[in-house]
Every structure is written in structure tokens, then in C-alpha cells.
Specification:
The complex is a heterodimer of chains A (352) and B (308). Chain A is mainly α and 352 residues long. Chain A has helices spanning 13-37, 42-50, 57-82, 90-107, 116-142, 146-166, 200-218, 220-230, 232-237, 242-269, 280-290, 295-319, 326-345; strands at residues 2-7, 346-351. Chain A has one domain (2-351): ABC transporter involved in vitamin B12 uptake, BtuC. Chain A is built from 13 helices and 2 strands. In chain A, α4 runs antiparallel to α5 (116-142) and α11 crosses α12. In chain A, 52% of the residues are buried. By secondary structure, chain B is mostly helical. Chain B contains 14 helices and no strands. Chain B is globular, with a radius of gyration of 20 Å. Classes of the chains: A mainly alpha (352), B mainly alpha (308). Chains A and B meet through α6, α11 and α13 of A and α3, α4, α10, α12 and α13 of B.
Chain lengths: 352, 308
């Protein structure tokens, strides 16, 4: 008696939908084991990770606040992954969006006009796009691997932000802390729900995946992107220009990441500081895969991964876990959907 | 720059080149077998923390180094399971390993933050190590520096001059043909991935036991990703990878010396960008030259399915 693996000829939609919930259950079990083995109280730590953040209204608001940027960045990245384009530098694009938006906001300290806020948001979009345009251009013109260039640019962006807030953009009245001046009221996103930090930026972040789903589902560009990934040769015969697909997905993803960065500094943070993101650009990759690269799957996936961030903070307090521990849960959340794909693509049977 | 500055600078370049070389040599073998493992950063971090923990618990540096290699290899098994046994996407799986490894290393190392160990001892041969210039550069390094060069020579010999190496390259260039000839593609790739993981772990061990004999979260600071670039830079050939590692080691040291000397009025953050920008420029130069497409193993990154 042995196991026999046979490839499935057709996809199984039910299987496909089952993968994320199964992955979540497997992640909870596996991370419990990791915590227990390392001598942390498994039950209490898991409770802190997955339940404790959800018992208050403010907990849910914080969850949405973190899930928003993840969802918006992940839909952009997912479009690229479908086309076989690996932009993994969303973190840097987010930072450059924040830098551009922050720079413009600091340039209009006294303006009260209604146009200030749209302008700074556009600056964020453009800042992200500019940072994403570099790997896109290098890949199209010279065939440079976009994985490594986009990633290296993330380190450059982090250092640039640090240079600006330690140097030219430092608040002269800030007791020599590395931070910029606070942005003016006209350039700030104000909370929309009392006693929470939710802003209209968060709303936009949840609407974008839905809008993008409609575009990718019904517009020709969505078809072109899917074809480029599934059958590059067919896309070529059909006359779809590969370089245009690369540009489209890179600029979409990096622009959305930049916008997310702008929302972060214009909303909850209110100024530029050395660290404006807890790695949203990287964890968005996990969100994209956990959401099966589907815009509507990405929203629940983003909420779940956001929970691991907040849960990580809670567990830090309740069980003394180190700050980076959330990465274990997040890594597992990516392992299991990847592993489960095997069951979607293959049938495993016992043969005698 | 006179000799009194240059010699210590070059000696420091060795320190910053060695972890890059170790990790890149492992990845060279993995990629020659047709597997792209992007998780080096995570495996290095796990190797670093394992090495540090065992060293400070046992007081034995050899045990620490072995633990580093073991830790890196253990994490690479997870990658191999996903990509080889379950034929999952190699890029995504590698990223998962990088993220998971970073998290796991922070969990494992929570109790060790801020502690330090005795750094790896440097060779000292009576009189010979005191020869000006050559002595400090060639005969006053630590064990892993010599090991990294020896491993480079060994990799070159095995890959290019032995039957084992030929089979490994065949698997990377044309997996279906190798399979048809009766070679167990999956097993050979497992071994190549394990070797890559162990070498990444060694690279991590070098960081936490020799370069900066302490542990902190994110100790590797992107070196795992630079190692990936070095493999491309070296066109998958061991000695060229070594040249690349020393070139990059030199660049990072130059950057540090410029910062320390305060000679130039450039802010430290801008100087710190140099290695990353240099990486992009080098990568662009190679790709523009077309060398990449000629040298890359043909099956790199493609999952293998046995046809029955």
C-alpha cells in the first residue's frame, strides 16, 4: 500500500476556497507548537495573538487601520505576481510615497485650501511610482532582475528617509529628536470615528481592492495581465506588449504602496519619523498569497495578517515575546497556502 | 592612503567579505542544481542565533559554528519540502523562508540580546604572522576566513572536475534529461538546497561569532540579499563569486572608513547607501552585457515534475 500522486486535469473551486481557512488553522497549531517548544505559554500566547485584540471596538479599529495598507499594497502586488513580475520592494515604494507626501505637506505649512490634501496624496502616489519605475525600467530596457533591484531600493529609501529626518527636514523645535514638523491641519487626515484613529484613508484602502477587482475582471487590461503570467507566448501572439504589462503592474503596485505610505504619515503619524512602517511592504506579499492573489480574497487575508501584528504587540506585553516574533506567524501563514497548493493541483490516492 | 591605514582596512574587508562569500557559495551550488532559494537572509539569521546560543551555552566555538550550519540547513529543509516535494513556487517559498527565519531568529535570540561572546581566535604563527603587510593580511585571519576560501576551491573542483558536479549541473541545466538517464533529480536538489542552507548558516555564524561577536535582531542587515546578487555577478562560477564578495567587502569597508574618517562632508546615511546602490549598478552592468542569460542554469527556478 502506498500513496500515489496524480495531477488533476481541472481545477477544483471548492478546494481553492478551502485552502485559506485550512492554512489559518494549520498556522495557529504550528505557531502554538513553536511557542511551546521555546518555553512560552502556548495557550496564553495564542490567545494574545488571535483573540485579545478583538474584544474591543478600538481593537477592531486598530485592526482595520493596519489591514488597510496591507490590502491596498497586496492587490497591486498580486496583479504583478499573476503576470510573473516580482516586485518585492513595496516597502521602499511605501516609504518614498510617505517622503514625497510629507515633503509637499511640509512645503505648505500655512495653506488652508481644500486642495492641499488631494495634492499631498497625489504626491504620495507619484513618489511611490517614481521608486517603482526604476526596477520596471531596468527590467524592460536591460533585462535586470526586478526582485533584487526593487529590494535594494528599499534599503536606499529607508536610509533616505532617515537622512531627511535627521538632517534637512528635522524639526528645529523638536528637542533634536529625529522627526519633521507636524503637518498642517489642511494636510492631515482626521479621524472619522470618535475615539479611534480611523481616517478616510483607511476607507480608500478597502475600496481600492474592490475597484481593482472590477477592473481586472471586466477590462481588457486584466486579461492581458493574466495571459502574460499563464501563457507568455500566447500573450505575444495576441499582440499584448510585454513591456506595457510590466509598466502597468509595476506602476499600479508602487503607486498604491506610495499612497498607503502617504496615508500613514498624513493620518495616524502626522509627521515624518525614521520608522513609518512595521514592514507592511513585505507582509503585503504574504497577504497577496494568502488571499490567493484575488482582490476579494486579499481583504480577509489582510485583516488576518493585521491581527498577527497587533497580536504580536499584545503577546509582547502578556507573554514577553520579542518584537520580531510576529514574523514566525506571518511566515507560517505564507508556508501553508503554498504547501496546500499541492493538494489543489494534485490528487493523492492510496493504492494497494 | 598609506600602508598603516590600508592594511587594517583590507583586513576589515576580509571580515565583511567572508559572510557574503560563504552564503553566496552555498547559493551557487543550489542554483547550479536549478533551485532558486531567496531565503538566504532568513537562514543566515537562524544560523547566526543558533551559533551564538550554542557558543555562549557551551563555551565551544567549534560547537557554535556547527550549530550555525545546522540551523541554516534545518530551515532549508522547510524550503526543500515546499519547493521540491510539494513543487510550490520557489520565489514565494524563498520569501516565506526569509520572513519566517527572521521571526524565528528573534524568538530564539530573545534571551541573548546585548550579550557578547569571545570572538573567533585569529591565527598567529610565530614570526611569520608579523611579516609587514603580508603577515596581517594572509596569516592573521580566523578559522572561517580560511575555511571560506577552501570551500570556494572545493566547490570549484567538485562542480567542474568531478562526476558528482557534472550530475548536479545536468540536473540544473536539463532536469528531464537527467531524470531520463536515471538520476534522482529531487534527491540531488535536496542535497544542493541543504548545502546552501548550511553555508548560509555558517555565514550567519561568522557574523555572530566573529564579525560582531554579539546577537541583535536583524543582525544580517540585508547581506543575504547581496549574496544572491553576488551569484549573478559571479556568473555562477566559484572564483568569480569570490572576487565579487571581496569587491563588495571592500566597498562596505570603504564606506565605513569614509564615515569614520569624517574626511568628506557626506552624511552617514548617504554613505551607507553605497553598497546597495553599487549592487544595483553591478547587476545592471551584468544584465546589460547579456552575461546573465548565457550563464544562468537553464532550469533555474522551475519546479520539477517527474513524467511517468
Amino acid at each position: 500500500m502506498r500513496l500515489k500522486v496524480e495531477p488533476r486535469s481541472t481545477g477544483v473551486p471548492a478546494m481553492n476556497a478551502l485552502v485559506p481557512p485550512l492554512a489559518v488553522v494549520a498556522t495557529i497549531l504550528a505557531s502554538g507548537v513553536v511557542f511551546a517548544v521555546l518555553g512560552y505559554p502556548a495557550g496564553r500566547t495564542l490567545f494574545a495573538f488571535f483573540v485579545a485584540p478583538l474584544v474591543s471596538l478600538n481593537g477592531w479599529a486598530e485592526l482595520a487601520l493596519k489591514a488597510g495598507p496591507l490590502a491596498m499594497i497586496a492587490v497591486g502586488l498580486a496583479a504583478g505576481f499573476r503576470a510573473g513580475i516580482w516586485n518585492i520592494g513595496a516597502e521602499g515604494q511605501l516609504i518614498m510615497g510617505a517622503v514625497a507626501a510629507g515633503g509637499v505637506a511640509l512645503g505648505f505649512p500655512d495653506s488652508q485650501g481644500f486642495w492641499v490634501l488631494p495634492l499631498v496624496c497625489l504626491a504620495g502616489l507619484a513618489g511611490g511610482m517614481a521608486w517603482g519605475a526604476v526596477p520596471a525600467l531596468l527590467r524592460i530596457r536591460l533585462g535586470v532582475n526586478e526582485i533584487l533591484t526593487s529590494l535594494m531600493l528599499t534599503y536606499v529609501a529607508t536610509l533616505l528617509l532617515s537622512y531627511l529626518v535627521f538632517g534637512p527636514w528635522k524639526d528645529p523645535d523638536g528637542y533634536s529628536l529625529p522627526q519633521s514638523r507636524m503637518f498642517s491641519d489642511a494636510a492631515t487626515l482626521t479621524p472619522i470615528l470618535a475615539r479611534t484613529r480611523l481616517t478616510s484613508g483607511t476607507l480608500v484602502e478597502f475600496l481600492v481592492p474592490v475597484a481593482l477587482w472590477a477592473v481586472l475582471r471586466y477590462a481588457l487590461v486584466g486579461f492581458k495581465i493574466r495571459t502574460a503570467g499563464l501563457a507568455p507566448a500566447a500573450a505575444g501572439y495576441a499582440g499584448f506588449v510585454q513591456s506595457r504589462v510590466v509598466w502597468t503592474v509595476f506602476l499600479t503596485a508602487s503607486g498604491l504602496a506610495g499612497l498607503a505610505g502617504a496615508f500613514e504619515v498624513l493620518g495616524p503619524i502626522g509627521q515624518l519619523i525614521p520608522q513609518i512602517t512595521p514592514g507592511y511592504g513585505f507582509t503585503a506579499i504574504i497577504v497577496a498569497f494568502l488571499g490567493r492573489l484575488h482582490p476579494l480574497g486579499i481583504i480577509p487575508a489582510a485583516l488576518l495578517v493585521a491581527l498577527s501584528y497587533i497580536g504580536g504587540d499584545t503577546a509582547q506585553v502578556s507573554s514577553g515575546l520579542p518584537k520580531g516574533a510576529a514574523g514566525v506567524v506571518q511566515g507560517l501563514l505564507l508556508f501553508f497556502p503554498l504547501a496546500a497548493d499541492f493538494l489543489v493541483r494534485n490528487r493523492v490516492r492510496v493504492v494497494r | 592612503m598609506n600602508v598603516s591605514v590600508l592594511v587594517p582596512a583590507l583586513a576589515t574587508a576580509t571580515t565583511s567579505a567572508t559572510p557574503l562569500l560563504l552564503a553566496a557559495m552555498g547559493e551557487t551550488v543550489t542554483e547550479r542544481a536549478g533551485v532558486l532559494n531567496l531565503g538566504i537572509e532568513g537562514m543566515m539569521l537562524v544560523g547566526a542565533v543558533c551559533a551564538f546560543a550554542i557558543d555562549s551555552a557551551s563555551g565551544s566555538q567549534i560547537l557554535g559554528i556547527a550549530a550555525g550550519a545546522f540551523g541554516g540547513a534545518a530551515l532549508s529543509v522547510v524550503f526543500a519540502l515546499l519547493t521540491l516535494t510539494l513543487a510550490a513556487n520557489q520565489v514565494a517559498s524563498g520569501l516565506a523562508v526569509a520572513i519566517f527565519g527572521a521571526g524565528l531568529s528573534s524568538l530564539l535570540g530573545a534571551g541573548f540580546v546585548g550579550r557578547s561572546v569571545v570572538p573567533l581566535a585569529h591565527l598567529h604563527i610565530f614570526l611569520l604572522s608579523d611579516i609587514p603587510v603580508l603577515g596581517p593580511l594572509l596569516l592573521r585571519q580566523d578559522l572561517l576566513v580560511y575555511a571560506s576560501v577552501a570551500i570556494t576551491a572545493g566547490t570549484w573542483w567538485v562542480l567542474g572536475r568531478t562526476r558528482t558536479g557534472m550530475v548536479l549541473r545536468a540536473v540544473g541545466e536539463n532536469d528531464q534529461s537527467a531524470y531520463a538517464l536515471g538520476y534522482n533529480v529531487i534527491r540531488i536538489r535536496y542535497l544542493a538546497v541543504l548545502f546552501g542552507g548550511a553555508m548560509s548558516g555558517l555565514a550567519g555564524a561568522y557574523l555572530s561569532l566573529a564579525a560582531t561577536p554579539m546577537w541583535m535582531e536583524g543582525l544580517t542587515a540585508g547581506r543575504g540579499w547581496i549574496a544572491l546578487v553576488l551569484v549573478v555577478f559571479g556568473a555562477w562560477r566559484p572564483w568569480r563569486v569570490l572576487i565579487g564578495a571581496y569587491l563588495f567587502g571592500g566597498i562596505s569597508v570603504l564606506q565605513l572608513y569614509l564615515q569614520g574618517a569624517g574626511l568628506v562632508a557626506i552624511p552617514s546615511q548617504i554613505l551607507a547607501m553605497i553598497p546597495y546602490l553599487a549592487t544595483i549598478i553591478v547587476l545592471t552592468a551584468i544584465s546589460a552585457g547579456g552575461a546573465r542569460r548565457l550563464a544562468a542554469p537553464a532550469c533555474l527556478g522551475k519546479p520539477f515534475r517527474a513524467t511517468t
